[in-house]
C-alpha cells in the first residue's frame, strides 16, 4: 500500500490529512512548499534550554508533558508545517533494557557494546508497555497540534547497529564493518533484531497518532552501494513493510548518501531525504519517479548573511521546482549555535517564495 491510498476516517490522522506537509508527501498540489527542520527542537532555542535545565536528555524523553512542550516550541516560534516528536533514536534500546546514556556534546554511549552472538540475546522485543510515555506524549501532542501533522521517527537498523557495536559515536565505524564483513550471518541477525524493534517502535507512534514517520539512517553513507544492498537494505525494507498498512508517509534520510539515494527509495520509502551534497533535480533523477523528496539547504548556510541564506535557498527551490512533491528541510539537523531568528525568516521566505 502506498501513502496515497487512504483517507483515515477518524483519529489525529484524519485531522492532518489535508495539511500541506502530507499533501506534498503524497505528491499532490500544495498552496506552498511545506517546511520543517530536522532537529528543530533543541539547543538552538533558548526556551528549550530553559525547560531542559537540570534534566538529563534521556529522562526528558520519558516525561510526556516536557516532550509535548519541547515538540511544540519550534512550531509556535517558526510556524513550520510539521512537528517532529521529541525523542532520540536510542530511546527504544533504553526501553528494552540496554544500558546506555546520551552524553552532552558526545551523543549515545553504550555501556557494553554488542559484538557476539551471545550479546544478541540482550536485544529483546519491544512492546507498547515498554514505552507508555511515548503513547501518552503523542496523545497529548496531537490534541494540541490539531491540523499540524506530527512526524514520528526511529533510527534505522544500520545506524542503531553502529552505536551498539562501536559502543558510541564513531567516525570510521570500524567495529561495525568488521562484524558486517567478518560474520555476515551474525550481522544479518543483528540487523533483523533491530528491524523488529524499530518496526514495533514506529507502530507505537502511528497507533498513538503520528501522521508520518521518518527512518533516520544517519551514518549509512559510510557504505558502498553493493554493501548497502546486500547487508542493510533488507533490514530497512523490513521496517518500512512493518508500517506499510497504516498508509502514513514513510520518509527515509541519511547523510552523505548521494550514491545510495535510489537504493534507499527502493527500501520502501514514500519520501527520500537528501543532504546538501546533491542538488534536488539530480537527486530526483537518482531516486526516480513516484517518490517525493525532502531537503536540502546546508545547515551551515544559516551562519551566513540573510542575503546569502536567501540566495542559497533560491538554489534549492529552483532545483526542486520540477519535482512532484517537495518538502523543504535542511540537509541535516539544525546546528546548536544557529540563530533561531534565521530559521523563522527561512520558513517565511520559503512559504512566500513558493506561494501559488
Ligand atoms: O527536533 C528533532 O529533530 C527531534 C529530536 C531528535 C533528537 N535526536 C533529540 C536530541 C531527533 C530526531 C534525534 C535523532 C537522532 N539522535 C539521530 C538521527 C538524526 C541525525 O541527526 O542524524 C542521531 C544520529 C541521534 C544520536 C544523537 N543523540 C546525537 C548524535 C546527539 C547529539 C549529541 C550532542 O550533544 O551533540 C544526541 C543527543 C540529542 N538528541 C540532543 C537532542 C536535542 C542533544 C542533547 C541535549 O539537548 O541535551
Automatic annotation (TrEMBL):
Pathway: Porphyrin-containing compound metabolism; protoporphyrin-IX biosynthesis; coproporphyrinogen-III from 5-aminolevulinate: step 4/4
Subcellular location per the Swiss-Prot or TrEMBL entry: Cytoplasm
Residues annotated as domain Uroporphyrinogen decarboxylase (URO-D): 34-43, 151-167
Annotated positions binding substrate: 39-43, 88, 163, 218, 332
InterPro entries the UniProt entry points to: UROD/MetE-like_sf, Uroporphyrinogen_deCO2ase_HemE, Uroporphyrinogen_deCOase
EC number per UniProt: 4.1.1.37
CDD domains in alphabetical order: URO-D
Keywords on record: Cytoplasm, Decarboxylase, Lyase, Porphyrin biosynthesis
Reaction catalysis annotation: uroporphyrinogen III + 4 H(+) = coproporphyrinogen III + 4 CO2
Residue numbers marked as site, Transition state stabilizer: 88
Subunit structure, interactors included: Homodimer.
Family: Belongs to the uroporphyrinogen decarboxylase family.
Function (record text): Catalyzes the decarboxylation of four acetate groups of uroporphyrinogen-III to yield coproporphyrinogen-III.
HAMAP family per UniProt: URO_D (MF_00218)
Record protein name field: Uroporphyrinogen decarboxylase
Organism field: Streptomyces enissocaesilis
